[in-house]
Amino acid sequence: MSRVLWKLLLASPVLVTGLGVMNGAAIAAESSQELLNIDVAELQPTPGSESLLTLPTQSTEFIAQNRRNNQAPTPSVAELEGGPVVNPAPAQPHRQDQGLGVRRQMPQVTSVNQLSDVRPTDWAYQALASLVEKYGCIAGYPDGTFRGNRAATRYELAAALNACLDVISDRFATKEDLAALRKLMEEFAVELALVQGRVTNLEGRVSNLEATQFATITKLSGSVIFNVSGVFPGSGIADPTVNVGGSNANINNNPVFSHRTRLILDTSFYGRDQLRIRLQSGNIQGYNAVTGTNMGRLAYEANTGNGFVLNKLYYRFPITKDGRGRLIVDAQGGDFTDNVQTFNPLLSSGDNGALSRFGRYNPIFRNPGAGAGVTFRYTLLDNKDRGTGLDFNLGYLAPGANSPNTVTNTGGGFTAFNSGLFGGAYAALAQVDVRPVRNLAFGLTYIRSFGTDVTGGTGSSWTGAAYPNSGYGPIVASNAGLSNNPTGGTNGVANNSADSFGFQFSYRVMPKFGVSGWAGYSNVTAQQGPFNGRNAQIMNWALTAAAPDLWNRGDVLGLIFGQPPQMISSPVNGGPRSTFDSYHIEGFYRFRFTPNIAVTPGIITIINPNSNTSNSPLVLGVVRTTFTF
Q1: In contact, 374 and 396? CB cutoff 8 Å
Q2: Which of 118, 147, 173 is the last residue of a domain?
Q3: What are phi and psi of 401, to 5 degrees?
Q4: Which residue of 88, 216, 377, 427 is surrounded by the most CB atoms within 10 Å?
Q5: pLDDT tens readout for residues 402-441
Q6: Cβ 622 vs Cβ 602: under 8 Å
Q7: SS3 string of 217-267?
Q8: Which residues contact 180 (CB under 8 A, 6 or more apart)?
């Protein structure tokens, strides 16, 4: 078998080279009126004869028989007037054509240098060298010249091609090769039949998949999280129904086992766009309801009563031909954290990253929460070789975009605008992403918002018991230093505007170790009602470290230290001012047992939760098991 293939490989360059030489001769003869005036009809075969164009497809046996029977008007090369002498099979006596003198055949040359008019600088020198020295196909004229610039006649072209075919025909498979091949086919008949059966089976399965698949342009993926968590004994927070400085009441919370399931349908209509539909179901309740503070919330909370809901719906597509500009249209569950860079690559995922809600990224990105709107992203610079780049982002989201109505608070004497795409609650973002050198990236963020929680549900807070229906009495006033009610009103953040600024960075120190961090600042101002003009400032920061692939590929060790959003100044006269003394400490290790199963145990500790030194540290133990498909 290998001998047959070897001979075929040896033969293929001969045809290519020979045709290249003959093509070169035709190019050199462009000034000849004889070649320029050839009629197209002349090239077509006539009944009972064979055209020159069909010669390469004829077998050597046919050509030899044709020569013996004198059925084709192809004279011997030696009989052509002024024609070159080629080197076919042993010379035979030929008849003399009319008007053509017979030349003595030149002995076969063994080197192209024996042709006196061929120089190494000639454009076809290498082709001639191969034909003469390697294949012994072309010889030359009896006077030792090749006459490469001379126009070739159709007879000469046919004779040269016929001679080359005679030479290379011996290089193809012989009868012995064919017999050996037939013997191998018989010997491996069973194996060949098995392969053929497998191919047929695969073709049938592919046809069945194509006929029964869900959709040709849609892909289904998803994740399932099993959560086991609980507050460690001894943790406690002051009873929010008393006051900030009240007695310490330990939390009696039993460990829980809960879950969250997501199903994702991704559709692409032309390869560069993405329509995503995400369904979610779960019963993971937030620990803010248990502990009285948002600082203890988990990263993957979802409580839908175990029923599936439409959690996210968006469409992404390029708006420039080069793909640098992209637009994201959020119709449901829009979140800036899904649309822009958050600069915490190994810990930002709720499925496999940080265990806490605060530890994933800068909380200002969660402003305004789930909403609808658009985000535009444009890549100004992207140098993959140097690892540098520059991106610009603009976004607008409204949490009440689907509702045309407003909510009126008659008790407060003003209207809380929190609905509609425009005119209600909203957040508008501008961000610049910079990659100045390889492995380093940072972002500068500005968000203008109204009627939203600038902390994204991660900062100091009380449960609903902290805001009784009796108005805004001493309990509310004493709690005015909390970030979920920065201006001390009875409506929380409903009528507050805010200017938020963020700085985020990520640096890959080495292949298996990286650090990230952020700082966020918000200036909040009340816009309506009796609290109009009140002003408060909220701040947060964090540093994270991640070490991937320490034990197995896909493992991650994560550490987080920082301060969740807290008031750094209070607008309420006579009310307490925050001492900014709550700290978040988190450590976890993600074990990746298979590409689709990961188990992440960890500890979350909040020191002085709700910026109150009267509170005991809040310690949560968490084990998250994630299944992806």
Answers
A1: yes
A2: 173
A3: -65, -25
A4: 427
A5: 877 665 554 444 455 557 788 788 999 999 999 999 999 9
A6: yes
A7: CEEEEEEEEEEEEEECCCCEEECCCCCCCCCEEECCCCCEEEEEEEEEEEE
A8: 1, 3
- Could you tell me if residue 47 is inside a domain? yes
| Distance between CA atoms of residues 506 and 93, nearest Å | 88
Whether residue 503 lies inside any domain: the answer is: yes
Question: What is the dihedral sign for C-alpha 287, 288, 292, 295?
Answer: positive
Does 461 reside within a domain?
yes
In the structure, what pLDDT confidence band is assigned to residue 122 with cuts at 50, 70 and 90?
confident
The pTM of the whole model exceeds 0.70: no
Counting every residue written for the chain, the total comes to 629
Task: Answer yes or no: do 424 and 491 share one domain.
Answer: yes
Q: What is the pLDDT of residue 391?
A: 97
pLDDT in tens, 562-616: 999 988 876 654 444 556 889 999 999 999 999 999 999 999 999 988 887 778 8
* pLDDT value, residue 418: 58
The amino acid sitting at 190 is V
Per residue, what are the HEC states of 541-597?
EEEEEEEECCCCCCCEEEEEEEEEEEEEECCCCCCCCCCCCCEEEEEEEEEEEECCE
Residue 32 has pLDDT above 80, yes or no: no
Tokens of 584: 């978040």
Average pLDDT over residues 502-525: 95
Long-range contacts of 250-253 (CB under 8 A, 24+ apart): 250/616, 251/290, 251/291, 251/618, 253/290, 253/291
Three-state DSSP class for 19? helix
